[in-house]
Structures are given as C-alpha cells and as structure tokens.
Amino acid sequence: MAEKDLQVPEKKEVKSTAESTRNVPVFVPAVDIYESEQELTLLADMPGVSPDTVDIDLNGEQLTIRGTVPADGENGKMIFREYTVGDYYRQFTLSNDIDREKIQASIKDGVLRLVLPKAEAAKPRKITVKSS
C-alpha cells in the first residue's frame, strides 16, 4: 500500500457570505455516492451530528443538508486540539431521475445515509422481443 493511500484529507471549510448565529466553522461533509439499478445511496461523514441536529431540505431540484454539532461540553482548559468542531453544509442538484416522494434518510455513528430511489422511467428495463 502506498503512503498516499493512508493519508486522510483535511476537512474543507465552507466560505459563506451569509451571517450565522453561531460562531463555529462550517465544513463540507465528505460523501460517497453509490448507484444501483434501483437507487442512489449517499453517505455523508458528519461526526457529532445526531438525528435531532440534522436538517435535510428539498426545494425544487436542490437538496440541502445541514448538520449542527452541539457545543463542546468538556470541562477544563483546552491545551491541545487536533479535531476542529463545526457545523456541516452541502447542497446537491437532483435530476428528474430521482423519485422525490420516496427519499429516505437515517443517521448512525455520525454517518448520514440518504437513499434516493430512481423514478420508474429512469430504471433499466428488459424489452421483450416477439416473433411475428
């Protein structure tokens, strides 16, 4: 295994022109997207986010994911930090191939799972050949 394979990418911070009510950085969550014949599955890495602190909005073709991480509750004086706490924000444009009414979301251990079922018209189908 090459050394490059073991490197973890740094969190990417979102530079926003909008003002926030919280004074924390906002990060772009890393995602993996898988496609099957029936659906797309999106996995977003959002450590510290719980079902109560994640918002998923669908407005037209814009799917927006926002995750809020609660303030650090540790007692004592911080002397060293490698992990930066912040909120998460990412937006996707959905095609008409996605059945918007059947989108499902769950979160476990800081990983958000979105299941985006394909519309019937977008699913592959077998065409039967008839003899005349």
Descriptive notes:
The protein is mainly β. It has one domain (23-120): Immunoglobulin-like (Sandwich). It contains no helices and nine strands. It has strands at 12-13, 26-28, 31-35, 39-45, 54-59, 62-67, 87-93, 104-108, 111-117. The strands form two sheets. A five-stranded mixed β-sheet has the order 1-2-7-6-5, with no helix packed on it. A four-stranded antiparallel β-sheet has the order 3-4-9-8, with no helix packed on it. A hairpin with a 2-residue loop joins strand 8 and strand 9. The mean pLDDT is 83.
Low-confidence parts? none
Find the count of extended strands (DSSP E, 2+ residues): 9
Give the ordered list of helices and strands.
EEEEEEEEE
Beta-strand content:
35-45%
> Kindly, what is the distance between the CA atoms of the first and last residues, rounded to a whole number of angstroms?
58 Å
CATH architecture: Sandwich
CATH fold-level assignment: Immunoglobulin-like
Separate helix tally: 0
Overall mean pLDDT:
83
For the biggest β-sheet, the strand order reads: 1-2-7-6-5
Overall shape: elongated
**Radius of gyration from the alpha-carbon trace, in angstroms:** 19 Å
Q: How many domains make up the coordinates?
A: 1
Give the fraction of residues assigned to helices: under 10%
How would you sum up the major sheet? 5 strands, mixed
Assembly type of the shown chains?
single chain
